[in-house]
């Protein structure tokens, strides 16, 4: 008599699809590269002494507090409009990253050391990198709304890229977390532009200042 057919899940394991093989390979490469690049993941790592410096740049709390302070101190209507929209962009970034992290629930790399400055519940998850998202968003925002000389524009782009790379070097994120974060932050600026707050579209907000 013919043997009974294999369960569907066993068939999937014995005959994986090309897409499944490709995704598994990419995941393996991602994990391998992330671990190799995590040279600041701990004090005993190859570049462990640079760890305290890399932990600061790109954190959401200083950006929010600095933007809010500038908004309160500004005496120019044009500056207030730009700062209010930057504050809106930063808050939108925090909410969106938290939602995606909560949905994907990808654990942080095994070599990560959880010594972050300020954390919330979703910070135990890795995808996407909030620092990378914020860096790309702020970079694109400043490039469009600040008059900067070419060297400063180049430095701004380099800063955003360095923030992304530092997340992998610290062991906080995998490479794909950072790449998706940069893309998400770049796209998020377009949302901010389409919802731009002005004295005409949001008079109540501008009345506060």
From TrEMBL:
The keyword Endoplasmic reticulum applies. This is Polyisoprenoid diphosphate/phosphate phosphohydrolase PLPP6. It is an enzyme of class 3 (hydrolase). It is a multi-pass membrane protein. GO terms for molecular function: sphingosine-1-phosphate phosphatase activity. Keywords: Endoplasmic reticulum, Hydrolase, Lipid metabolism, Membrane, Nucleus, Transmembrane, Transmembrane helix. Its EC number is 3.6.1.68. Gene3D superfamilies: Phosphatidic acid phosphatase type 2/haloperoxidase. InterPro entries: PAP2/HPO, PAP2/HPO_sf. The keyword Lipid metabolism applies. Residues 82-193 form the Phosphatidic acid phosphatase type 2/haloperoxidase domain. The chain crosses the membrane at residues 83-104, 141-166, 186-208. GO terms for cellular component: endoplasmic reticulum membrane; nuclear inner membrane. It comes from the Eukaryota. It comes from Zapornia atra (Henderson crake).
């Amino acid at each position: 008599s013919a043997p009974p057919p294999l369960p569907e899940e066993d068939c999937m394991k014995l005959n994986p699809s090309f897409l499944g093989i490709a995704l598994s390979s990419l995941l393996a490469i991602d994990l391998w590269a992330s671990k190799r690049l995590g040279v600041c993941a701990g004090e005993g790592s190859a570049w462990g002494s640079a760890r305290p410096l890399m932990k600061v740049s790109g954190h959401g709390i200083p950006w929010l507090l600095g933007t809010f302070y500038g908004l309160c101190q500004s005496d120019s209507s044009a500056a207030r409009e730009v700062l209010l929209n930057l504050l809106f962009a930063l808050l939108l970034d925090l909410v969106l990253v938290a939602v995606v992290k909560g949905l994907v629930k990808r654990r942080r790399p095994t070599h990560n050391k959880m010594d972050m400055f300020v954390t919330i519940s979703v910070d135990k998850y890795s995808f996407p990198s909030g620092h990378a998202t914020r860096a790309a968003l702020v970079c694109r925002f400043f490039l469009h709304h600040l008059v900067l000389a070419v060297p400063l524009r180049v430095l701004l782009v380099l800063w955003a890229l360095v923030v992304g790379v530092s997340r992998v070097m610290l062991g906080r994120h995998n490479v794909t977390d950072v790449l998706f974060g940069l893309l998400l932050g770049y796209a998020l600026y377009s949302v901010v532009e389409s919802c731009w707050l002005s004295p005409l579209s949001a008079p109540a907000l501008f009345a506060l200042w």
